Amino acid sequence: MRGRSLVDRGLDAGHRVEQGEKRHPTDFALWKFSPPGQQRQMEWDSPWGRGFPGWHIECSAMAQKYLGDYFDIHCGGEDHIPVHHTNEIAQTEARVGTRLANFWLHGYFLLLGDVKMAKAAGEFLRVKALTDRGYDPLAYRYLCLTGHYRSQLNFTFEALDSAATGLERMRQGFYALPDGGTADGALLERFTARLDDDLNLPRALAVAWETLRGDHAPAAKRATLARMDAVLGLGLAQWRPARVEAPAQVQALAQARAAARAARDFAEADRLRAALQAAGYDMEDRPDGFRLVPRKPG
């Protein structure tokens, strides 16, 4: 069976692999024969001889078994466009008489310093390598959300640092919002429209930021962002700031300031805030109390 896209690319016989039993260099294998005198780990008897199915027919068979003759979405990498998926379509249409899928979503490569990641070349980055450096894996997820799936994303640690900063700011902003609100339907509709536009997650993420920074009621912001995060998967509702074990005298200043603020003695509250800052801490007021944050140098 012939792969049309290979003809378009002008593939010469024997350029990549031996032509073997092919009648044409662009034919692809439905069944491959086991080498004479050798036993493979997986091989079967067939009317054509002992061997194993070709890669393309394997995928068509699995898709048909678990999803049916005709399903909605088929995914894969960009490298599957010219060969694998073209051949999958050809053989499935020949057998079933209908197209295989309605939509094809091809994820483009993640580049590492402008070079395609490849195990064979030793240029392969694992999540563990990020956690070993102290990065939250969700910072990598955030980085991926900033790129469209049909555009190549170049990984650098500078880009990951920026993503980690963005994630931290979104977490802090969400955490400061009170519970008890109702999600804003118009914002959710805009968010969904971005997703419906060819899964445009960067623009959907932008709507989430507009929600956080907008002038809606704080509780409504939180409820709306929580609904959006069901798609984004950043775990905003589960995140908690790292607990700061401030010295006892700093804790005493903070408690005194909270009491002054509750008594509406704002002059005393401001004085105590200045004392906290002089001790190297900022005090963030929250609906459920306060949080001490060490001041950054400078």
Summarize the structure in words.
By secondary structure, the protein is an alpha/beta fold. The chain folds into 3 domains: 4-107, HUPs (Rossmann fold, 3-Layer(aba) Sandwich), CATH 3.40.50.620; 112-238, Anticodon-binding domain of a subclass of class I aminoacyl-tRNA synthetases (Four Helix Bundle (Hemerythrin (Met), subunit A)), CATH 1.20.120.640; 248-294, no CATH class. The protein has 11 helices and 9 strands. A 3-stranded mixed sheet has the order 6-5-7. A two-stranded antiparallel sheet has the order 1-2. α10 (248-262) runs antiparallel to α11. The longest helix has 19 residues, at 157-175. 16% of the residues are buried.
Outline the fold blueprint.
Elements: H1 4-9, E1 31-33, E2 51-53, H2 55-67, E3 71-77, H3 84-96, E4 101-107, E5 110-112, E6 115-116, H4 127-132, H5 137-145, E7 153-155, H6 157-175, H7 185-196, H8 201-213, H9 218-232, H10 248-262, H11 266-278, E8 281-286, E9 289-294
Parallel strand pairs: 3-4, 5-7
Antiparallel strand pairs: 1-2, 5-6, 8-9
Notable characteristics:
single chain; 298 residues; alpha/beta; Rossmann fold; Four Helix Bundle (Hemerythrin (Met), subunit A); 3 domains; three-stranded mixed β-sheet; 9 strands; 45% helix; 13% strand; elongated
Task: Give the % helix.
Answer: 40-55%
Q: What is the C-level CATH assignment of the largest domain? A: Mainly Alpha
Estimated radius of gyration: 29 Å
Spans where pLDDT lies below 50 across 5 or more residues: 1-16
